[in-house]
């Protein structure tokens, strides 16, 4: 028969799925010999059974019975025994902790009789009645769903009658009175008296924990965080220990290192004569953990020893909850603690120094997302404390970065002001697609409603724009163009505010922004061996050295200019995976493109191309120089030609005006006709990529010639250019064959002209499903593949990114259709499957084929791990993401990679 209950001596830390995080770690501490009050855990399996069938599994009651009996034997008291009651807590504890789940109920087992026994045994009547009123209050609130305010109000009334605001001034009689009042509230709200039978109390509390798995807030949280809905929660029943037994008792929380900075040394808070959450609820001022040494030197010493044991055992930062009962220390919880990005790097580095973990393990303790956080410019903390700047509110850290600007309250003003050179922060209750222009114009976005999947959050992340969302305490009044902070500060339109998308803080005034020292290190401005480098930079440096040696995949950058290429190289890029050429056709060169499009004869066309050629050659020379010795994949022109023509409305107006005035407008009219001719309903699927190369004679060969000549120039200057020619948007091998032959012909011509050898690979992007599905054939004509995962995602899903992201992605995320946008993180099941097919068939057809990826996914941590698994040779991403990709490629290759 299945086993549904485990005593704390039976479990261990690896049983989190079955016992939940709290239960597994309570068991682990018990087995380490630490002072944990005895108890048992009811498994998640029992919960799953209860939730799916509506009743607890057969045998569970008997098992609980047996375990309780065993607990009673150990403690020498029965649950709720009138003259000397055993009390227990009933604590929820899922695999992942979740807001909205039922909170813990303490002091189960008290009733009108046992409270007297507890008073007599402890010799402390105040303590007994305080414990009892806590039970009725917590039970009423969490098990019976009674509004907590009712209980709070009663407490306030009793305090007021006493003329105090401090709970320490309340005596036994006050608490006894509160118990009476609380029992009345329960009777009134539920129609039944407070359950006095201790076993009934326990059973009701256990069921309430089970049921709370499906509480709306918990369900929403799971959908958003991609936590499976069917895991269920465990329930822990634990003998009570009492921190509210006088000033020699108390309760506290602690971390084995500072989770904010990562600095070594314990860190925590302690509160005398208190129970449970009192220490974090802010009812009285806590004292720093160090002061416990003065209050109770023995318990303090024991606690320090235990924290040491825990760190050595978990080999990581732990956070703990403890209680001291009349000078005796008890451990109530531990887990590997959450930490900031900076702390993660520092701690990983320290643990290596201490010999606790290997470097390989250390790099598994940090993530690319954390590194990315450290790379954003941030507000100067010293200045925040300074004059003129005040923190006025807090929201969710939806999209990282630090933005400063004048508050504006609608999209129109955002656009108008930004056009006149003002920096603005768009403040809205929430955003919708109508706000898009304003969001683009703004430095950052602040909303008072909606979570990390709200429209504002999704769109801001897509644009890489700073966003703080769901700052519920801030009242945004768009009608009167002002917002009001909880402290009463009013921000009118035009007042400067600063928002921190990494922490979620909102400030009134201009907070100075400082460059990240980590970026300055990557840029080569800070030498990690010098005094300039702090311990964070040194930690990052050490881990980066390790991952660079460990990773199999290379990391390239997407860069279109010599400056970007140089920057990417400083950031550690090992080449360029995508050099787009479209920007090279803009600006002054538009006229040449116009001439190319309008040409009536092949001669005219050839002339236009001939003028573009030297300009293109210059473009490539700079990039090849910046990346000397490293591969540079140049993509031939990709976007539809009409993107280079003037705007249709502007042009129509110009023609109409000229006509009305009777002026000559021959050229404009011709261009307008061309614009109409080239107009496409759906340009993404129209005349672009290789299709352009096939229908505009000479365009691609001009580009290839420019690349070849630039390379020849570089060689003459002593350089080692390594261009690679990439053909975009190929759907069938025939397209590629034609263009490739032409490209090779041009290369041979240039070789003959200059008497050099130009052995440059020619390959293709794989960005259409058909290309992936026929990758074997395509590989016979391609020396490399580069997966263009942006377009591949668009074409696999049938999504036009610019349209869908702003219009309905937020609804999709909220309904849980997907947990993360497929443009942010690769859709492994769909797009990833096509990549797998193309990798296998491409390699089968051409074993030495070089495979890479150049979509934005190349810099996304989860996607990088996927690319490692399918065996790509390199990823390519924006220069700024190069360090993130290096780190994740190294983590993916690590021995302990999970
Ligand atoms: P959470 O998941 O919110 O941390 P816990 O189950 O840890 O909830 O319990 C809430 C509070 O009650 C914590 O401060 C915890 O230390 C305290 N607590 C839980 N069980 C006991 C117990 N048996 N004796 C004393 N305090 C307890
Ligand atoms: Mg806890
Ligand atoms: Mg593309």
From TrEMBL:
<dbReference type="InterPro" id="IPR000121">
    <property type="entry name" value="PEP_util_C"/>
</dbReference>
<dbReference type="Pfam" id="PF02896">
    <property type="entry name" value="PEP-utilizers_C"/>
</dbReference>
<dbReference type="InterPro" id="IPR010121">
    <property type="entry name" value="Pyruvate_phosphate_dikinase"/>
</dbReference>
<dbReference type="InterPro" id="IPR040442">
    <property type="entry name" value="Pyrv_kinase-like_dom_sf"/>
</dbReference>
<feature type="domain" description="Pyruvate phosphate dikinase AMP/ATP-binding">
    <location>
        <begin position="298"/>
        <end position="344"/>
    </location>
</feature>
<keyword id="KW-0547">Nucleotide-binding</keyword>
<dbReference type="InterPro" id="IPR013815">
    <property type="entry name" value="ATP_grasp_subdomain_1"/>
</dbReference>
<keyword id="KW-0479">Metal-binding</keyword>
<dbReference type="InterPro" id="IPR002192">
    <property type="entry name" value="PPDK_AMP/ATP-bd"/>
</dbReference>
<dbReference type="InterPro" id="IPR008279">
    <property type="entry name" value="PEP-util_enz_mobile_dom"/>
</dbReference>
<comment type="similarity">
    <text>Belongs to the PEP-utilizing enzyme family.</text>
</comment>
<dbReference type="GO" id="GO:0050242">
    <property type="term" value="F:pyruvate, phosphate dikinase activity"/>
</dbReference>
<keyword id="KW-0460">Magnesium</keyword>
<keyword id="KW-0067">ATP-binding</keyword>
<dbReference type="InterPro" id="IPR018274">
    <property type="entry name" value="PEP_util_AS"/>
</dbReference>
<dbReference type="Pfam" id="PF00391">
    <property type="entry name" value="PEP-utilizers"/>
</dbReference>
<dbReference type="InterPro" id="IPR015813">
    <property type="entry name" value="Pyrv/PenolPyrv_kinase-like_dom"/>
</dbReference>
<feature type="domain" description="PEP-utilising enzyme C-terminal">
    <location>
        <begin position="541"/>
        <end position="889"/>
    </location>
</feature>
<dbReference type="Pfam" id="PF01326">
    <property type="entry name" value="PPDK_N"/>
</dbReference>
<feature type="domain" description="PEP-utilising enzyme mobile">
    <location>
        <begin position="422"/>
        <end position="504"/>
    </location>
</feature>
<keyword id="KW-0808">Transferase</keyword>
<protein>
    <recommendedName>
        <fullName>Pyruvate, phosphate dikinase</fullName>
        <ecNumber>2.7.9.1</ecNumber>
    </recommendedName>
</protein>
<keyword id="KW-0418">Kinase</keyword>
<feature type="domain" description="Pyruvate phosphate dikinase AMP/ATP-binding">
    <location>
        <begin position="60"/>
        <end position="285"/>
    </location>
</feature>
<feature type="domain" description="Pyruvate phosphate dikinase AMP/ATP-binding">
    <location>
        <begin position="17"/>
        <end position="55"/>
    </location>
</feature>
<dbReference type="InterPro" id="IPR036637">
    <property type="entry name" value="Phosphohistidine_dom_sf"/>
</dbReference>
<keyword id="KW-0670">Pyruvate</keyword>
